[in-house]
Amino acid sequence: MKKILNVGIVGFGYMGKMHAMCYEAVKFYYSTDAEVHLYAVATTKKPEDLPVRFDRYYTEAEDLIRDPAVDIVDICGPNFRHKDLLILAMKEKKCIYCEKPLTTDLASAREVIRFKESSGYDRTNRVAFEYRFVPAVMRAKQLISEGVLGKLIHFTFNYYGCEFLDPNRCISWQSRKELAGGGVLYAMGTHSIDLIRYLIGDVTEVFAQTRTHFKERPLKENPEKKVPVEIEDVVNAQLTCGQDVIGNLLLSQVAAGSGIDFSFEIYGEKGALKFNHENANVLYYFNNEDAKEPIGGYGGFKAIETTQKYGGEAVFPPPRVTISWSRYHIASLYEFIRAAADEQPAFPDLEDAYQVQKITDAIYRSAAEGKLEQVTD
Fold first, then answer.
1. Domain, as residue range, for 108
2. pLDDT (tens digit, 9 = 90+) per residue, 62-119?
3. Quick one: the chain helix, strand, coil %, rounded to 5?
4. Are 311 and 189 in a shared domain?
């Protein structure tokens, strides 16, 4: 008999809807001994306005978390609510799946981790850094771990969007420092930083600049009135991993024409890797030890086709089928569900997200002080 895990989703906005869709889709993509049931939701929306049906509807997230029938608390609410909801979910001994970032600042993130340590919380938990589950990224991790690139030298990560290019976009919680914690660095940069840690190693120091392109935006309730924008649109950072691997991180939410324009390049003594989300089905690999004669020999970047090659558990669609953004979320949730059913750890977890928060904090400190900053607790 399959183990049934009851999921309670906190918040049913953009990401709440995405997570619910992926929970429903997991059974089509994977053959598993565990099943998830969309048991409860906490939202101000009416049940009839939701695209899926739940057994229980709550207006208060705390009531959902305290429901003894809830096995997994999936936190999709605004950033400023994460700290209290995470701590309560740990008190209630729930498995946790939480959207990034961990919290709005390093101090509150530290509270979460200290509570986790002091309470002895040991249930399965994950923060949704879904780009780890792009097959091309998984293949990059494998190649780097095997030493195929040799000693790493430098890297570049870019992530562009155009969400805030419209000057008439109204102020929302994402535009308020106390509610969001930050701008493009939290919304998009945390994904890049998690992958830098995953693929290259811990960031030890940063030098950064931030810019807010539109200094004011209209209020939604009164579009004629404009208020100051408190978060950044652009981040440009130089990072050091370990002692001597250096790299660049460039983020923008005001890049005209951009969708999910995420890319990275990693260079080592023996070769290099390139990935561009515009063709997420391929990882490009250069082998510096390929024969270079005659007439170029076998040199050049080679396209490694990764598509949906997730391995034996993924039964649908076939591995040859091209990948899409929602597929990474499904893969992330599946791995989490399997770990929760077996009461095993699931990475990236709360601790990984805390390490990311330490780096974002150093970036903000560097931008504010105009100097190199160490990544510290």
1. 3-130
2. 999 999 999 999 999 999 999 999 999 999 999 999 999 999 999 999 999 999 999 9
3. 35, 25, 40
4. yes
